[in-house]
Every structure is written in structure tokens, then in C-alpha cells.
Amino acid sequence: MGYDIERFVGYVNEGLLCSICRDVLEDPLQAPCEHAFCAACIHGWLVHHSNCPEDRQMIDVSLLRPLYRYMKNDLNRLQLHCKNREYGCEMVCSLESIDRHERECEYSQIPCSNAGCTVQIERRNLDGHLAVCEYRSRECPNGCGYTILSAEDTQHNCVAELRTELELLRSEMICRVEEAKHEMESRLDSQRRHMVQKESILQNEIEELKSQMSRMMSDVRSLMAAERQHRQELEQAELEKREL
């Protein structure tokens, strides 16, 4: 939607009005046929149509372009009243600077900054409201250190508040201890599984080494037996040689 034409001072050129809402262009876009629209208006129109609302020529979102520079300059120079005119603001400024003014306008209706308060107040009166707001907070005057709302003054009990806080801290501590305990148990289980796995691997390696040693001893015995046999054969041959 565009800017309400009633807010503007003086004449507004027809070419600076949105072809859909007929108000002064806001975030303007232009179709190839040179008709101009508010960005929100034309995007909403193209959800259900595929043509220009003025001359029915076919258009697509991808064909929309920013307003011509000279038209943009003319638009930015238009003078209009602040939207808070009904609340007493008499500011008139250019369209180019109206957003900046309205963000800071003393007559703007803003929410109270206190949690729980639903009051809308003029910015210029906010400090006065905060001083008396029933949702304003302050530190307990009895020295317990708690921040309380003014509306809770009569219900505030330092001992009860501290006892509640102590119970919350105790519960939080128990939860943290349980979490630490579970984490340590999980780590121990993981390490235990790792050690068992390592032990199994080492046991398999030991058995493999034993098997290799057994094979080596068997080979050594075979070699020694062969050596004895060979020595006996040599001795027999020596005897036969002597007899000859």
C-alpha cells in the first residue's frame, strides 16, 4: 500500500500515484509499459494475474524495474505531514526523510519497555510513564538483593524468596552432579570397552606368537634330528672307510 495522498502538501503528479491503490508510490516498481506501482501492490496483483492492471499487457515479476531516476527524484521531493499529526506532531518534511523522522518522532506511539506492561505511550511521555508503571522493577529495599515489580511489593517475602532460590540452586546442583556422574560413567564404560577390545587383540597376538614359537621349536627339533642322522651317516661312512 502507498502513502495516503491526503498527507501530502500541494499537488501530486498523477504519474507518482500507484496504478493499483491510487495512493502515492511506496517502494515503487515500474513495468515495461511504464505504469508504476507500489512493490507490495504489484506483487499482490501478480499472485492472481499475469498482466498490467492498467493496460492488460502481459508482465512478469522478473520484468519489473526501479522507477526512472527523474521520477524517483520528484517522488522524494514531495512534502507530507508526519503520520502522528493526529497526536499533535506538526512536522512536514520530504518523502525522502519521512521514515527517519517518524522513527524518532516524539509523538510516536510506542510500547512500554517494562515486561508485562501493555500500555502504548507517546515517546515524549515514556519517561514519565516508566516512573509510575506498576510493572517497573527495582531492588528489594530490605537488602535481600532481589529485583521486584512495584505491583508485587506487598507479596514480596525476602525469606521465602531466598528459600525458593536456595531450592532452585540445590535442584540445579543435583542435576549438574547427575549429569557429571552420567558423563563419567559413560567415559568409564567407553574406556572399559576399549581396554577389553585391546586385551582381546593382545591375547590373540600372544596366541599367534605361541603358535609361531611352537612351529619354530618343531622346526628346530626336526633340524637337530636331521643333523644327528647326518652325523651318524658320516660316522658310518668313516668306519667303512677305515675297514677298507
From TrEMBL:
The protein, known as: RNF41 ligase
Keywords assigned by UniProt, alphabetized? Coiled coil, Ligase, Metal-binding, Zinc, Zinc-finger
Oxidoreductase is among the record's keywords: no
Give yes or no: UniProt keyword Disulfide bond: no
Name the domain of life this protein comes from: Eukaryota
Share an example GO biological-process annotation for this protein: regulation of canonical NF-kappaB signal transduction
Leader peptide range in chain numbering: none
Please give the Gene3D superfamilies that the UniProt record associates with this protein: Zinc/RING finger domain, C3HC4 (zinc finger)
Which ranges carry the RING-type domain? 18-56
